[in-house]
């Protein structure tokens, strides 16, 4: 099978590219659980991840470079049984996400704290970009990256004050490993303080095989009112997605927050709308940061931001946009991309990486 890749109006550098094809189109070229290869002009070969559905396959590869306006012709050329560069390892308290045998990050699932979180995030020098500190007294519920809401039928799953709610991992499924990406789906139960179910959460995580010092994650989050109607209240303690920066990277220390339109720090960003916000600073002599990209399919795109100079960055359409009502059986869905990087917002080309997400390259099959 041949394909044509069109960069569009933007330079593409280490850009994930995904498209769907019929299963029959790979007949004789690929076998399940194997690595498919894409031959580029000049003899370069790219590994591709293939995830099968009923009658189709999702094909994904990392495009090293394609200049704006350029087109690339490529052809699939077979598969191998090589080991997987990106993998998952079960641990006592969660799942370790591995790249070439080194831990990229981890998903914490144990019940000694109120809810799961994802983190650490590190740059190429091992500098911790996010905060994970279970002993801190200052916003102790802020741990790396988490998903929650401060008013679910009146129950607070964001803060961890008396009578707070809980989020418990019920199942890890849909695990996938390849040379291009690895990922899993977490099925979580949200309850009040005494265990009464409020709703269910299903979040899929997709971790890409990027250069050292870069972490790129796609998240697909769904809340479902399985146990009766759910009201997600109009609180500022809401996400669904939030990140807490390492203390040295706070605006109050070395950091800077920058939004897509050029707004800087809390005074210009808090509860304003933007398709992305990046938070970066200097720690141990290294500049690094992390950005959240909103997805154009999300309700009220571009999102409002609950972003603070003390280190918090969270998407939040509820404080301004009002509560959301979910009838029994109804779901609400959000998608985001998270980009942890070395350098400042400009040095990491956060705008360019957002455009890879918002206006991805076009793939035409032949």
- pLDDT < 50 runs, ≥5 residues: none
Q: Describe the main β-sheet briefly.
A: 8 strands, antiparallel
The backbone outline, from C-alpha atoms, is globular
The H/E string reads: EEEEEEEEEEEEEEEEEEHEEEEHEEHE
Q: Give the CA-CA distance, first to last residue.
A: 7 Å
- Please tell me the overall pLDDT: 95
The chain-level structural class is mainly beta
Layout of helices and strands:
Elements: E1 2-6, E2 12-22, E3 35-39, E4 45-52, E5 56-66, E6 71-80, E7 86-91, E8 94-99, E9 102-108, E10 117-118, E11 145-149, E12 166-176, E13 181-191, E14 197-208, E15 215-224, E16 230-232, E17 238-244, E18 256-259, H1 265-269, E19 276-283, E20 286-294, E21 305-307, E22 312-315, H2 318-321, E23 324-326, E24 331-342, H3 350-358, E25 362-365
Antiparallel strand pairs: 1-6, 1-25, 2-5, 3-4, 3-6, 4-5, 7-8, 8-9, 9-10, 11-17, 12-13, 13-14, 14-15, 15-24, 16-23, 17-22, 18-19, 19-20, 20-24, 21-22
What this model shows, in words?
With 366 residues, the chain is mostly beta strands. It has three helices and 25 strands. It has helices at 265-269, 318-321, 350-358, and strands spanning 2-6, 12-22, 35-39, 45-52, 56-66, 71-80, 86-91, 94-99, 102-108, 117-118, 145-149, 166-176, 181-191, 197-208, 215-224, 230-232, 238-244, 256-259, 276-283, 286-294, 305-307, 312-315, 324-326, 331-342, 362-365. The strands form five sheets. It has an eight-stranded antiparallel beta sheet. It is globular and about 60 Å long. The mean pLDDT is 95.
């Amino acid at each position: 099978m041949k394909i044509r890749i069109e960069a569009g109006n933007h330079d593409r550098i280490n850009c994930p590219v995904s498209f769907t094809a019929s299963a029959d189109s790979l007949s004789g070229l690929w076998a399940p659980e194997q690595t498919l290869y894409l031959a580029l002009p000049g003899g370069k070969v790219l590994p591709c991840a293939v995830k099968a559905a009923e009658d189709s396959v999702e094909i994904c590869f990392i495009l090293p470079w394609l200049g704006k306006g350029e087109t690339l012709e490529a052809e699939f050329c077979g598969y191998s049984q090589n080991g997987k560069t990106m993998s998952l390892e079960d641990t006592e308290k969660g799942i370790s996400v591995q790249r070439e045998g080194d831990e990229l990050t981890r998903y914490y699932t144990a019940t000694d704290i109120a809810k799961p979180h994802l983190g650490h995030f590190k740059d190429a020098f091992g500098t911790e970009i996010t905060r994970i500190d279970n002993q801190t007294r200052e916003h102790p519920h802020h741990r790396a990256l988490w998903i929650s809401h401060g008013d679910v039928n009146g129950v607070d799953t964001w803060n961890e004050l008396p009578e707070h709610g809980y989020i418990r991992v019920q199942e890890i499924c849909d695990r996938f490993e390849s040379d291009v990406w690895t990922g899993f789906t977490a099925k979580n139960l949200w309850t009040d303080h005494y265990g009464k179910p409020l709703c269910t959460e299903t979040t899929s995580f997709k971790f890409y095989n990027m250069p050292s010092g870069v972490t790129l994650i796609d998240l697909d989050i769904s809340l479902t009112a399985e146990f009766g109607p759910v009201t997600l209240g109009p609180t500022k303690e809401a996400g669904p997605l939030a990140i807490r920066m390492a203390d040295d990277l706070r605006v109050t220390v070395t950091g800077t927050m920058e939004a897509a339109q050029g707004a800087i720090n809390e005074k210009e960003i808090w509860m304003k709308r933007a398709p992305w916000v990046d938070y970066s600073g200097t720690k141990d002599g290294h500049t690094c940061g992390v950005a959240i990209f909103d997805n154009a399919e999300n309700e009220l795109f571009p999102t409002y931001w609950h972003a603070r100079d003390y280190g918090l960055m969270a998407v939040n359409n509820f404080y301004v946009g009002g509560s959301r009502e979910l009838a029994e059986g109804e779901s609400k869905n959000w998608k985001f991309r998270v980009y942890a990087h070395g350098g400042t917002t400009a040095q990491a080309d956060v705008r360019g990486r957002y455009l890879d997400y918002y206006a991805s390259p076009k793939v035409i099959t032949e």
